[in-house]
Amino acid sequence: MNALEVYLAADPVNAEIVKDMLVDRGIAAHVRRQHLWGGMGELPANVYPQVWIDDPADYDRAREIVSAFEKGPVDTGRDWACPGCGERVEGQFHACWHCQHPRP
Fold it and tell me: Cα-flanking dihedrals φ and ψ of residue 7, to 5°?
């Protein structure tokens, strides 16, 4: 099984975000070269972090997720009221920040 690069990140934070998005969707992924970022401007090489997936069979689905990330904010839906405590929760959250009740 050969790992494949699916994303060249501008910085380590974006690499971790993309990796987490992939992992949350069941795609085994990891970040490479994140520790080289500290040498930016000092090393004569490409030191941008990369996100790689472990299974080439996941490549097309991973690239769809990465493409959606690159396009900008994902439509998160409307705000919702927590059925557990009544707290108003912003649309991007899948659980209540106050009581951790899952979004209905």
Answer: -155, 130
> Which amino acid is present at 92?
Q
pLDDT at 39 over 60: no
Model pLDDT for residues 68-96, shown as the tens digit of each residue:
888 876 556 788 999 999 999 988 788 89
90 in Cβ contact with 79 (< 8 Å): yes
d(CA 67, CA 51): 13
Cα 50 to Cα 71: distance, rounded to the nearest angstrom = 18
Structure tokens at 24: 């949350």
Which residues pair with residue 62 across a beta bridge? none
Could you give all domains of the chain from N- to C-terminal order, each with its CATH number?
A: 4-71 (3.30.70), 75-104 (no CATH)
* Structure-token match 């927590």, residue found: 82
Taking the C-alpha atoms of residue 9 and residue 12, their distance in angstroms, rounded to an integer, is: 7
Indicate the pTM of the whole model.
Answer: 0.63
